[in-house]
Amino acid sequence: LGTTITISSNHWIMAWTGLEINTLAILPLISKSHHPRAIEAATKYFLTQAAASALVLFSSMTNAWHTGQWDITQLTHPTSSLILTSAIAMKLGLVPFHFWFPEVLQGSPLTTGLLLSTIMKLPPITLLYMTSPSLNPTLLTTLAILSTALGGWMGLNQTQVRKILAFSSISHLGWMAVIIIYNPKLTLLNFYLYAMMTATIFLTLNTIKVLKLSTLMTAWTKVPALNAMLLLTLLSLAGLPPLTGFLPKWLIIQELTKQDMAPAATLISLLSLLSLFFYLRLAYCTTITLPPHTTNHMKQWRTNKSTSITIAILTTMSVMLLPISPMILTIV
Q1: Where does the secretion signal sit in this chain (predicted)?
Q2: Is the model's pTM score more than 0.90?
Q3: Which of 90, 178, 189, 308 is 20 to 30 A from 255 in CA distance terms?
């Protein structure tokens, strides 16, 4: 409901209402387990989102004060657009407001983590989409490049799968932010494909009950076919050419080059190699290598062997959508 209200509103107060409903709705899901880590994650999430929502209200009121407009598309005052960009960056977890996101994701169950990484990102991205003509290109490009760099850099030394996926999300948000001013539709395309691939990974990990790299190494014995597909989905999320994940990166680099932003395109492409490194490490742990030593944790011998048609469809789409890219190009 919160997402729908924000997406369909053209008045700032309604957009703010939708964001607040979303925040309050996800809090019980994060803190459901009553584990201290989950309670801490819920508290961090609430404080960050409340601060960001207050900034959204502040920027819209400043804009209304100067222009007399409460319409979302009429964000013409420069100070308001700067404050709004900061607020949305905080909502999304873009650098330098990214500190809360890995911690919150680490304290949440996998299914809630999936909601946080996909559905909860849609309303802020929609607000950016609607206000994109009046945003500051330099600020957004800086935030995007920093997010791609830091998302890749900080994901390198993680052993917790949820934290790795959180930094992967920050890195992908950098790609979305860099293009939103020049071609907002590409941002939405990138978001949809990212959401689809992330959903595949979270649902697969939830099926094989994996939360850290050491358990991922022993998971291939239980469901080998699912693990092989997880390997392909991870490589797709990394953006390797024959797979779906390459499509948004390819189009974004092409659009940035058309806009005379070849240096930014080169930089963001090189920085995505950092992310590729930890995706490859995940892929290696999934199927390619055997664990080098005996693991100390208890083997999970009772596993859910039931196959899910949802995971099958999502995996197929996450890996094989590249051939239809000409059709997507004509739509975009």
Answers
A1: none
A2: yes
A3: 90
